[in-house]
Amino acid sequence: MYAFILSSIAGFSTLIGFLFIYIKKDSKSVISKALGFASGIMLTISVIDLLPNAFRLITENYKSLVAIFLIIMGFLVGNYLSSVIDLKVEKNSHNGTKLYKLGIITMIVIILHNIPEGIATYITSTNNIDLGISLTIAIAMHNIPEGISISLPIYYSTGSKFKAFIYTLISGLSEPIGAIISYIFLKKYITNMILGVIYAIIAGMMINISTKELYKESKKYNKKDTKTFFIIGVIIMLINHLLFGE
After folding, report:
1. Which residues make Cβ contacts (< 8 Å) with residue 152, sequence separation at least 6?
2. pTM
3. What is the dihedral of CA 214, 220, 224, 226, to 10 degrees?
4. What's the pLDDT score for residue 75?
């Protein structure tokens, strides 16, 4: 029960990011800053968290060369899947704005990111509650800016706070869903190698979206704000990693 509660706390911390839609400033300035910030966040998570963890997990049972090969393949698969999702969302989106599409794509990728996090939190908390609490805090800290990266594009493209809230909530729910999946299906069967490959795939998706979508779109609104808030996003995640990375 405690493991599921901790997974839920980590997931619902995403909703704290939703509160940033109440910042009353020029919309173009907020959008540029939010997208630049989200780009820095997602790129840094991929480089200093997902890829190193993928390597660590795989090398627990396999040689380094095997791990590198699996990570490269997973990364390429993730990059390809991200492009496919981008095309599907653009084709089926009833709202024609690029900003709305970015919000939806970001939500999908973060959901895919949060599910294995929910699995990891559940399994860790089941075996060691103290370590589970530490992991929950770490995940909650980087889920807040992830909530910002979903809610702001959705809000400014639709003008609906309700939609921004619902989409952010859905991404947060994926964390406890990961815990439920772990409890019902995966606890006995999930391996470090599988988790490592999943992390590599998600890293490929995140880096693709960060560089080809979020950063590129942000520059259309304000190039200076994009660079500044991209760097701020990177710094915040580096500090987060130093404080809670272990």
Report:
1. 20, 21, 30, 31, 34, 35, 103, 164
2. 0.76
3. -10
4. 94
Torsion angle in degrees (nearest 10) through CA of 209, 124, 59, 84: -20
223's tokens:
């190039």
Count the alpha carbons within 13 Å of 145 in the hemisphere toward its beta carbon: 26
User: Rounded distance, CA 88 to CA 81, Å?
Assistant: 10
Both tokens of 106, joined, read 């970001």
Q: Which amino acid is at 11?
A: G
Q: What is the pLDDT of residues 130-151, one digit of tens each?
A: 767 767 777 777 788 788 888 8
Query: Using CA atoms, how far apart are residues 51 and 72, in angstroms rounded to an integer?
Result: 10
Vertex 210: Cα angle to 55 and 30 (nearest 5): 140
Beta strands in 70-155 (DSSP E): none
- Crossing angle between the packed helical segments 27-45 and 192-209, to the nearest 10 degrees: 150
Q: How far apart are CA 10 and CA 169, in angstroms?
A: 12
pLDDT in tens, 109-137: 888 878 877 877 777 677 667 767 767 77
Q: Is 219 within 8 Å of 109 (Cβ atoms)?
A: no
Cβ 205 vs Cβ 78: under 8 Å: yes
Cα–Cα distance measured from residue 140 to residue 143, given in angstroms and rounded to the nearest whole number: 5
Q: How far, in whole angstroms, is CA 122 from its chain's centroid?
A: 18
User: Residue written as tokens 């990728």?
Assistant: 109
**Which of 126, 131, 149 lies closest to 244 in space, CA to CA?**
131
Count of C-beta atoms within a 10 Å radius of residue 147: 26
